[in-house]
Specification:
single chain; 228 residues; mainly alpha; 7 helices
Length: 228
Amino acid sequence: MAITDIKEFAHLTEEDLEAFGRELDAVRRDIEDSRGEKDAAYIRRAIRLQRSLELGGRIVLLGSKYRPAWLAGTALLSLAKIIENMELGHNVMHGQWDWMNDPEIHSVSWEWDQTGPSEQWKRAHNYSHHTYTNIVGMDDDIGFGILRMTRDEPWKPINLLQPLANVLLATTFEWGIALHDLGAQKELDGEHQKRFWDSPSNRAFARKIGRQVGKDFVLFPALTGPAW
């Protein structure tokens, strides 16, 4: 639901909002003061677990011509992908672990296992989404440009196809997010249509696609060997 629909906020004065902000700042200070070695050990364990699952999945898939090995290897790789994207990549690129000053676990240097470049994701997600959360016209994560998610957006006949669009987005989510983030980056950079192919954001996008597709669909399948 869009923020404009929440009537409970309408009565808040400037003083109320400032008091609320101070309370949020206090919560943040408490969390920052509580961070320590226990948290650092957790994220390092999560990284080891993710890498172990991925390595184990790749090894098991060497016997992928046998159905149990194929299922087990796929399951291990699925878990590794989920942990890498959501518990590691998403949180690291939010800056959650920057306080450790570890160059490996830092929002500036982390490149996640996704089609889109991390820098473009951070622009679309960290800035647009978390600065203007659920504000129609400013938060691009509301429907990602293809889904009508709130009555504050005008209804159009094409919205009748939304159930199909939702299935399409779900099955190609990695690519949908990458293209969404690319569009946000191009808008930020003020890139014009005449520079569609030769632009910094498109070159970064193409480089990441080349690495990702080469790894996922050429290198690792070749290392796995025949599956028959």
